[in-house]
Amino acid sequence: MAKLNVILVGILVVMFAAAGVYAFIGYSGNEALSAHYMTEQKWSDSSCSGCHVGVYEEVSESYHVEQDLKKWSSIMEYGVDVDSIDVDTMAVTYGQVHPGGGYMADYGVDIDCMICHEQVGGYDFEARAESIASGDFANANEAAIEESRAELQKEPLYVASYVLDVLAPLPLVTEVHDEVNGAPSKALCGSNCHTGEVATTAVAWTLEDSASYDVHDAVDCQECHETEEHQIGGRAYLFESESIHEAQSGVLDCDSSGCHEGISHGGMVDAHLEFISCESCHIPALPGSDVTGTPVIREFSWANGVREDIIYDSMFTPTLSWSEGVYYDQLPTAQERENHSVLKPFNMITGIWWDEGVDQDVLADPDNSPSIGNPIAPSDVLSADTDNDGVITEGEIRSYDGNMDETPDYPNAILRHVVMYYQVSHNIASSGIGLADPLECADCHGVSASDTLQNVHFGDRAQDCSDCHDIVPVINWKLIGYNKDPAETDPPTDFSAKTINVNIPGAKPVEVEREPAF
User: Fold this and answer.
1) Is 425 strand, coil or helix?
2) Which of 79, 266, 376, 396 is the most exposed place for a label (fewest CB within 10 A)?
3) So what's the pLDDT on residue 242?
4) Do the beta carbons of residue 315 and residue 285 sit within 8 Å?
5) Per residue in 157-193, pLDDT tens?
6) Could you give phi then psi for residue 140, rounded to 5 degrees?
7) Do residues 104 and 98 lie in contact, with contact meaning Cβ atoms separated by under 8 Å?
8) Sign of CA dihedral 112, 118, 123, 127
9) Which DSSP helix (H) or strand (E) runs through 416?
10) How far is Cα 220 from Cα 24, in angstroms, rounded to an integer?
11) CA gap 89, 508 in Å, rounded
12) Three-state SS for 93?
């Protein structure tokens, strides 16, 4: 028996030695073998499909590959409707954060698995983005790994992964393989692809101390954004067109199994959950540009042909408003309360742009219509500045004749001022984490704490919140359709005296400190 063990050990030593030589050949110029290192930036049926059967086709059909821009998002970024952006501009701009395939396949950019799954820090996102931005599509994926390929292929984890791949291409390889190319991390998603959301919703993903701003900092995205067959769950858009690829999965609710199931704040507060979301109270404040290091937008304007922004310099509060979902084919303006509406927190961003004034809904109510209308291209707005003073007047834009046919191009032009509601879902606070403690009763119902406050907030004269408040309160009862605080009592209740407790099923009892008996 001992002799057999010696023989088996000897065989294994020879196999591992041979595999090590085989692995060395891999990074010494043998293209067929080096594919096993996942550093060639190409999908290989021969080296990938053995374990990942059908995955390439699966990813090709995923939302992240087939993604389309929300029709209203391009107004902020380009000043025009997304349908007015030519495909080449789309490719060089949005291709920088696109995983390849889909419409990028037409430019020679194939699906790049490493953009999401590389784990050891060898992937150069900026190099790939710069390559795409310069129009060098063919070498974009290659550029991401070009500098680090040689080092990565000598990295012990990569070598071990390849050795195991040679010997046992199934269960054993995952022990090392996942350390090389595993599931995408929260930091990777937030820092490399979804950075644009910092400007609209002040998420703290990119911060080194992001754990100070979000109690879920240690939770990876796909733990809440349920993922199945490479479909990363997300909220569905209302009235989206059939061409938009819908995610098959969704986002877990706060009370989902394994999350905060069964937690209670008492009967009165729990009853609120029929019409108010948990995050409405648990996102009490958002970081401004001074913290994020990225401009957090309060207002953007294309009125003079170039984008001009007003930003939040410091901490601010999101605004609560009704929501039945997020629109795709309409501007995200204020929603009326419907049967399934709940209050959710939003960053309200005022957008200003010139519209052709030919859409009847826009003409009827330019500043409140959810219709996207017909935004005028900023290049035309700039060209309309006949006196070169940098300010475009209504007379200038309405008399602009770009094609020189002696007929104004935009005789009905209107300058729209639209307040758009960008839903906030991250930066969840607790009593010990976040810019502020979760909301208490008085934060919303303090307006009815006295007759004086009720008259101020619900009187006939419209009030500017900033006249009295350094930080604008989270809720404006009039804004969401109330003519008085629904919790108003006679005599007025002092809601600051009411507290909200947390009851967690099965939680360890609170320890009571007692004086020693002796």
Assistant:
1) coil
2) 266
3) 63
4) yes
5) 666 666 655 555 444 455 556 666 677 888 788 888 8
6) -65, -55
7) yes
8) positive
9) strand 414-423
10) 35
11) 57
12) helix
Q: Which amino acid is at 72?
A: W
Cβ–Cβ contacts within 10 Å for residue 94, how many? 19
Q: How far apart are CA 516 and CA 518, in angstroms?
A: 5
Contact 410, 454 (CB under 8 A): no
Q: Are 319 and 348 in contact (CB under 8 A)?
A: yes
Count of other CB atoms within 10 angstroms of residue 180:
22
Count CA atoms closer than 13 A to 7's CA, side-chain side.
4
Could you give the maximum distance between any two Cα atoms of the chain, in Å? 102
pLDDT tens digits, residue range 313-362?
A: 999 999 999 999 888 889 999 999 988 899 999 999 999 999 999 999 99
Total-model pTM? 0.84
Dihedral sign from CA coordinates of 416, 332, 370, 322: negative
End-to-end Cα distance, the chain: 67
Place of tokens 């309360």: 337
How far is 290 from 198, CA to CA, in rounded Å?
Answer: 12
Rounded to an integer, what distance in angstroms lies between the CA atom of residue 94 and that of residue 86? 12
Q: Which of 476, 480, 477, 474 minimizes the C-alpha distance to 438? A: 474
**500 DSSP 8-state letter:** -
- Give yes or no for a contact between 385 and 305, defined as CB atoms under 8 angstroms apart: yes
* Beta carbons of 421 and 343 less than 8 angstroms apart: no
Which residue type does 506 have? G
